[in-house]
Amino acid sequence: MISMKQALRGALALVLVFGVLAPTLVFAATGDVTSIEITNESPRKMSVSETAKLQVMAVIEGFDNKQDVTEGVTWSTSNAAVATIAKGKVKAVSAGQATIFAQLDGAKAELVVQVQDKIKSIKASPNSYSFVKGSEGTLPKVTITRANGKSEDVTSEIVWTVSSSSAVLEDGKIRGITPGRVLLQGKYGSTTVKVPVAITDVITKIDVTPKALQLNIKKSKALKVIGTYANGKTINLSKQVIWTSSNNGVATVKNGTVKTLTEGQATLTGTYQDQTITVEVTVVPLLKKLITGQKKLVLSPQGSTTISLMAQYDTGKMTVVTNSAVWTSTKPGVATVTNGKIQAVSKGKTSIVAKWGNKKVSIPVTVK
Question: Which UniProt keywords apply (predicted)?
């Protein structure tokens, strides 16, 4: 049988238990709000037309952790012409500054919002990457241009992410893990810039075609570059090779295409990964026509004469090519020719033909 003392001790224990638990349950439902704060970054920068969802956290008596009370807050703004607030969503209206107020049970919090002109464009430099797996590159510089025409460097404020595990972001750099294509995305507020990244395997050698070429002034020629991987597979690198010219005044290369400017010579050097290739370029003026000292000739048998041959180029340049041209006679029995010297043989008619480069000229000769 339980003694009276034991029964009282048990009843007192129950009273103590409920005496401890009951206040806690009451405070959890109706506890006083000690303080609140808007957890978003302050001051917050926004662009015209941009919206953002705000969150309010409160310290409530009876709770060990801060509680999300966003839904129960009363909102207001110091300048609705600059920024409005409704149900925790702030909207940027026009350029300027406004303070957003939150109030709950006598506790107040505020957030300063700086609104700038709408972003017209966002650009990353470089706007694409291509590197070997295991290597890395510094994250791009990002510039925005606002509707008022002003440009801003927002590189330090960009939040970067990558589209796949083929690349990772580490200490302000992007590093390739496995070969593939990755999209690097940078976010500035609600504006996003996208930078494609190509991660390639190791190239063991590269070859270029042609290795030497001759072009006229103001002409172009595409170069073909083939890379070979360690496993023997090949890839077209024509537009990925980085080229430099020993003489930019003579010839340049852009996107794998050679463009000539003036007469002369230049060595083009291409690099990709650790491989190097070269192309020798000779730029010559375009031969327009051949000009002779005589348009027609009349000779006596055994008579002779020498005519000169000039090459005329598109630059206006004239060069004597008499001794380097190829001379022929259509009827050697009437007259022969050697280096521009015509020798009459017998009566009749013939044509003396001079050929140089891709041009030729004919001179009618009569022997009588």
Answer: Signal
Please state the pTM of the whole predicted model: 0.49
362, 297: one domain: yes
**H or E element: which one contains 330?**
none
Q: Is the peptide bond before 43 cis (omega within 30 degrees of 0)?
A: yes
Q: Are 223 and 258 in contact (CB under 8 A)?
A: yes
pLDDT digits (tens, 9 = 90+) for 225-252: 999 988 889 999 999 899 999 999 999 9
Chain-centre distance for alpha carbon 158: 18
Question: Tokens representing 161?
Answer: 């992410």
Distance separating alpha carbons of residues 54 and 111, to the nearest angstrom:
10
The angle subtended at Cα 333 by Cα 329 and Cα 339, nearest 5°, is: 35
pLDDT 10s digits, 95-126: 999 999 999 988 999 999 999 999 999 999 99
Please report the pLDDT score of residue 231 as a whole number: 84
CATH code where residue 253 lies: 2.60.40.10
Q: Give the pLDDT band of residue 43 (cuts 50, 70, 90).
A: confident
As given in the structure block, the two tokens for residue 69 are 């009370």
How do strand 191-200 and strand 129-132 relate by DSSP bridges?
Answer: parallel
Other beta carbons less than 10 A from residue 52's beta carbon: 19
Cα–Cα–Cα angle for 204, 207, 213, rounded to 5 degrees = 160
For the four alpha carbons of 123, 126, 131 and 133, in that order, the dihedral sign comes to: negative
